[in-house]
Amino acid sequence: MTSGPYAGLVAAHGLSAAHRIVLDHIPDGARVLDVGCATGYLAAELSRRGCTVDGIELDAVAAEQARAHCRAVTVGDLEAPETRAEVQRMLAGAGVGGPDFIICADVLEHLRDPSTALAWLRTLLAPGGRAVISVPNIAHWTGRRALLRGRFDYTDFGLFDRTHLRFFTRASAAELARRAGFAVRAERLAGAPLPLESRVPALARVRDRCVRRYPELLALQFVLVLAVDQPGP
Questions:
Q1: How far apart are CA 195 and CA 218, in angstroms?
Q2: 148 Cα distance to chain centroid
Q3: Quick one: residue 207, left, alpha or beta (phi over 0 = left, psi -120 to 50 = alpha)?
Q4: Whether 95 contacts 26, CB under 8 Å
């Protein structure tokens, strides 16, 4: 729900690996709600593929930029009742039902109560809809190294982003989805460059294999595709 330095990072370096994975799971022509849409960098990619995108963004300046790529954007705090009411009015104004997909990319870790927020977003989905979320892995080796050194130094972005209110592991990310009433239909792993990888390109292939084998240690972010969990008989 915060654009912060992330829009600047995307402008300078392009979409992240997790962003690309999220986009891979959205089919052309889908109706999408992009939560924490920032300046609309995901919406821009989706609109080029024929998707109709609505956004929610806390930062009014970023939201104004996102309007170039979105059908409509609600400005406000996702956890505030008045913002949720405005989102519902925005979606009702489209006159085509709820979104097919809800994206929460680099968002849930910034919320006070991500489980409740995700549960509310679930109620907006069209029948058969999906949510695609990405969360950082605090158990990534760089996070473990910092803790072994007795450090937890906040930064402007990354695992120790000073705006993160929640921290996730692979298990707690899946538990977050479960508590919000979702079932995990797919899990994808976004790695990060290893030391010396820029000098030894072959390390990238090694890294990808290692991330798959040791996701709790080497995945920088987890991307989960979620479906509404149907209660049993």
A1: 12
A2: 28
A3: alpha
A4: no
The first and second tokens of residue 21, run together, are 């994975």
d(CA 69, CA 35): 14
Residue 102 bridge partners (DSSP): 33, 131
CATH superfamily of 6-187: Vaccinia Virus protein VP39 (3.40.50.150)
User: How much is the pTM?
Assistant: 0.91
Instruction: Determine which helix (DSSP H) or strand (DSSP E) holds 231, and give its type and residue range.
Output: none
DSSP state of 143: H
How confident is the model over 178-225, as pLDDT tens digits?
999 999 999 999 998 888 777 787 787 788 888 999 999 999 999 999
DSSP for 18-43, written as a single string: HHHHHHHTS-TT-EEEEET-TTSHHH
The full set of domain ranges for the chain reads 6-187
**First-to-last CA distance in the chain?**
37
Helix (H) or strand (E) holding 72: strand 72-75
